Amino acid sequence: MDLILLLLAAGCLFMGILGSVLPVLPGPGLSWVGLLLMYLTKTIETNWWVLSITFAIVVLITVLDYVIPSYGTKKYGGTKWGVFGTTVGLIVGLLAPIPFGVIIGPFLGAFVGELIGKATPSKALKAAWGSFMGFLASTFIQFVITAVYLGIFIKVVWDYKEQLF
User: Is 139:21 a contact under the CB 8 Å cutoff?
Assistant: First the structure.
């Protein structure tokens, strides 16, 4: 049973890494489920501190995933119209059945929002670029977190390898 849980955990962790760059999958959340499955084995002693801290990080990263693109829009000169457009674009992008909707949506949302707010096309494009940069920053942060979770998994399994195998 432990081997099955560890295989499922490893699968969740690798899917989590993919999910950090593919917006369709919740990367950090899947990685955390992988850690949880690892600690559900009979052999590995449950570390509630690690599970609690890593879960808090997942919650924080999930919230930041929605905040960072709006912050990027504002940082690159966007107004409340661009920030609002980014948020609407993110939601529409998530729901749209088009590839890369979650990337294109915030970019177009910020651009259109700034145009509605009477910005020049060049200023609107700059704000949209900020939204895209925010998306890239958020993706990078998620990738780092999921890679760290995989590292935790590898270290713990390595420490218990004699009892597991």
Answer: yes
pTM given for the model: 0.80
CA geometry: angle at 85 spanning 81 and 90, to 5°?
A: 155
Give the integer Cα–Cα distance in Å for 152 and 132: 30
CA distance to 5, 18, 105, 135, per residue, from 67 (Å): 34, 21, 15, 10
User: pLDDT tens, 77-102?
Assistant: 888 888 888 878 878 887 877 767 77
Tens of pLDDT, residues 107-162: 888 899 989 998 889 988 988 888 888 878 888 999 999 999 999 999 999 999 88
Residues 6+ apart with CB under 8 A from 13: 30, 31, 34, 35, 146, 149, 150, 153
d(CA 43, CA 96): 44
Residue 152, burial from CB neighbour count under 10 angstroms (0-12, 13-18, 19+): middle
Identify the domain containing residue 96 by its residue range.
Answer: 2-164
| Cα–Cα distance for residue pair 136/64, rounded to 1 Å | 12
